[in-house]
Amino acid sequence: MADSILRLMRTLNRGVAYLVGIMLLACAAFVLADILLRQVGASFGGTDEISGYVMAIATAWGMGFALMELSHVRIDLLRQKANALGRSLFDIFSMIVLTAVVLVIAYQCWPVLERSITNSSTANTPLETPLVWVQGPWLAGWIWFAIVSTVTTLCALTLILQGRFGDSEQAIGAFGEADNL
Questions:
Q1: 180 lies in a domain?
Q2: Picking from 42-51, 97-106, 140-149, which range would have the lowest pLDDT averaged per residue?
Q3: Cβ atoms of residues 71 and 64 within 8 Å
Q4: What dihedral angle (degrees, nearest 10) is formed by the CA atoms of 19, 9, 89, 176?
């Protein structure tokens, strides 16, 4: 069961990654168009602000994909010297810590959005962007990362408790450069 849940999480995150990639390409095209317009004395204006919003949203949504692809950085000096059980314990410890941090961040993001909703806050820029438009998808990305992290941790813990250390390592392990050759 843990295997099928992890496969589902990978599939969902690949879909998210494609959507985030499309959003980043659209943002790059928008910035490029603005740069070209500047050559003829015109400009959309606000491309720096909009690209900053896009990066914040893309980062929040992209972290779940990075987690499922084992792309988060970890120092594995001690881990690499351990046996399969030891590596699994290092891995699950790092996942529990990551999940705890992400849950706290996701929880603390809500008051930011709530304040913007209550105050009808806008950016203090010429665009006066309603912050809800940015903070809503940003919060959703952090919530998605918290869900992905929690589910992945629980699945990995299940695999470890079943003695499937190799499968656990494939789900949450840290692989050095030598392992990727």
A1: no
A2: 42-51
A3: no
A4: -40
Please count the structural domains in the chain: 1
Report if pTM > 0.85.
Answer: yes
Q: What is the mean pLDDT of residues 2-9?
A: 93
The DSSP result for 34-99, as a single string, is HHHHHTTT-----HHHHHHHHHHHHHHHHHHHHHHTT-S----TTGGGS-HHHHHHHHHHHHHHHH
Which residue is it, tokens 């990727």? 180
Does residue 114 lie in a domain region?
A: yes
Classify residue 181: in a domain, yes or no. no
Query: Above 90 in pLDDT, residue 175?
Result: no
pLDDT value of position 179 = 55
- Domain range holding 33? 2-175
